[in-house]
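> forwarded from #structure-qc
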């Protein structure tokens, strides 16, 4: 019986290996991809298989990737520039897209595509592929991207978002956090689409946290709200600032101010005096839980079925006197089990 079982297991393993070899062989022979164009440079440009002079851009690994042909590429003059950039005597390519740039003077400057006349911003068009957009009025010699602000750049005289020149005060423009920037005239709410000007007293700005800033009259939150109906949406929430009351950052989501608790800048009914968030060292909420003397909250949702007075974080578990609870506030097991 044991011998038959071993034979069965061995047969299954052998069939599995044969099947894997079959799949790998199918990928290899169905893929048009051959050897790298330039083995000395890390890139995703490959020759066609079996000596074909066609050139392909492949996001996978050589022979096991489908790849996309660089239509019209001249194989005799083609060379890898760097990473996903290549060129021949007639064209410059990013991945398999043709870029509308000057071929003779094209170069990369810290990953920024440039030629003798322009600096470019690469934008992915769902229909046309990658486009090299001229950055408005940018000086190619001094233009560079900002490490702290994706899709932003500056040259010797201006700031830019993607390929657009921005109307900000160059000398005083200051990056404050991933959510905020300012110059001598305005407070700027930073977002994926650039920025919005926010009415504020710029002479009295104080950064409370990465997402929260205040002036002499208001506290403003700019960012994402966990546990809301639109977790992907960015919110701008404001509440009144009282200079005679401290602003206490209780968690990533909660501020205690003037006898009230604000959740991402939105006033709550949480009892401020007894409020206790369960937080890590960086003030991020542990699984979203907090409580006051009467209620337990998951993010900003009240969990009426949990006993607030005995609710605690114990040995990496959330429990009250009766139950263990999971990340959704549901009972895992009663404690007596």
């Amino acid at each position: 019986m044991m011998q038959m079982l071993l034979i069965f297991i061995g047969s299954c393993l052998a069939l599995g290996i044969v099947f894997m070899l079959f799949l790998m062989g199918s990928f290899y022979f169905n893929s048009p991809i051959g050897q790298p164009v330039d083995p000395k440079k890390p890139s995703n440009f490959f020759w066609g298989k079996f000596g074909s002079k066609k050139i392909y851009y492949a996001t996978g690994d050589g022979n096991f990737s489908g790849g996309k042909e660089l239509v019209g590429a001249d194989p005799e003059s083609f060379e890898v520039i760097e990473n996903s950039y290549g060129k021949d005597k007639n064209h410059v390519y990013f991945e398999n897209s043709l870029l509308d740039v000057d071929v003779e003077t094209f170069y990369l400057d810290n990953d920024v595509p440039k030629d003798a006349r322009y600096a470019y911003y690469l934008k992915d068009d769902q229909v046309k592929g990658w486009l090299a957009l001229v950055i408005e009025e940018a000086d190619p010699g001094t233009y560079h991207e900002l490490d702290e602000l994706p899709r932003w750049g500056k040259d010797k005289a201006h700031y830019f978002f993607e390929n657009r020149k921005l109307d900000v005060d160059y000398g005083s423009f200051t990056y404050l956090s991933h959510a905020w920037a300012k110059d001598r005239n305005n407070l700027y709410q930073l977002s994926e689409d650039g920025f919005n000007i926010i009415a504020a007293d710029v002479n009295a700005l104080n950064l409370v946290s990465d997402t929260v800033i205040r002036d002499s009259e208001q506290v403003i939150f700019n960012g994402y709200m966990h546990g809301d109906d639109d977790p992907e949406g960015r919110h701008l929430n404001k509440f009144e600032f009282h200079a005679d009351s401290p602003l206490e950052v209780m968690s990533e989501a909660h501020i205690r101010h003037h006898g009230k608790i604000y959740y991402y800048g939105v006033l709550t009914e949480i009892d401020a005096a007894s409020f206790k968030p369960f937080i890590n060292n960086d003030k991020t909420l542990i699984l979203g839980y907090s409580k006051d003397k009467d209620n337990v909250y998951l993010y900003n949702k009240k969990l009426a079925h949990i006993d607030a007075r005995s609710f605690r974080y114990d040995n990496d578990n959330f429990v009250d006197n009766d139950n263990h609870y999971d990340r959704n506030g549901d009972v895992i097991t009663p404690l007596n089990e």
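QC bot note: The first helix runs from residue 2 to 30. The chain is about 10% helix and 40% strand.
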